[in-house]
Every structure is written in C-alpha cells, then in structure tokens.
Amino acid sequence: MTIEKLKELLQIRVDYFEQHLTDEAMTAQLKAYTANLGTVPDEVAEPAFWAAIGKCRYPKQFLVDWQDAVREIMRKRLPSDAALWSETMDAAHRISDCYAVHANGGYAGEAKGERLEAARQIFDGLPAMVQQWAGSPRDLCDLVNHNTKSELNKFTRPGFNKMLASAPLMELQPAQHADLLTAAPTAQIGDSSKPA
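^ that's the sequence the OP posted. Answer follows.
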C-alpha cells in the first residue's frame, strides 16, 4: 500500500474513533500499519478498510480487523479450497502415472529420467504451501496410491483444509497464476516523515 493511501485511511480512522493522537503516536501507528499492511495493494486495502471499520468495536483492535478483511478479500482471488484439493489430487495422479511409466522403462525415444522430470514439473506447478504439505512428488504419489478416495476425503482432506486456513496467502498462489495476488513494494517510513 502506498504511504499516501495509508496516511489518508489512518486519518479517517482517527477521525472516526474521535481520537486525538500526538505526532509520536501517529508515527508509531504509521510504522505498525506499514509493517503489517505495507505489501497490500491499494485496491485491496481500501475496501478492506471500509469493511473493517464497519465491524470494529475497539480502536486498539482495528489493525487486526483490517488484516482479517484484507485476508478475506485476497482469499477470494485465489482458487477455493475444493479447487485446490482437486488440483492437488489431479497432480498426484499425473505424478503417479509418470512414476509408473518410468518404472516400466519410459516411453520409446525418451531420455532415461524424462518421466521423473515431468513428475517434478507437475509438482512444481502446485502452490508453495501445497508443496510443503505434500513433501515431495514421491510422497504425493504415495498418498494417492496407498489410500482410497474415501480415505483421502475422510482422513487427509481435513488436514489439507486446516493447512490452507492457516497458510500465508502468497504461498497459496498457484505457480502458473503469478498475477492473482500482486504485491506493491513495502512502504518505507523514515525520520523524514516526522513532523518538525
């Protein structure tokens, strides 16, 4: 978020809660808000601000409410949990096929490790947090090969959904969709922003 937008929104917050802050307190708040929301694009930060101000009961709780609203808006830009699960299971089956073909000597005319490289590329196409959760292409392959679909849905999917709920949004971004969540550079507040 740009520093100008942050200052504008913080001034609205101060006025809304009828606070009277010293210059030092305002600078401290600017630094805290920048550290927590500095990478959020303006087009996400402003609607999240208005959503948070409508829900917030205590001024000291506002930063947390704003962050929650930002997360909610940004999460809507990503595939749903069900879509990520489906994509992960599809990738697991494709990786399993690659290992099966590799074990049988590969396709005619292929280099020796070409199927293993294909499995690695499929795995690398998954979001970073899903890759962390799965461990490796082999682990993901074993997951689908050693469990039935109902076992996966009953025992494995709840842990997958829990991981998604606590994951940083940037790590849920699919590798092939780098434009879903764009982050502006973190705003910098230095001594020059202090009033004289």
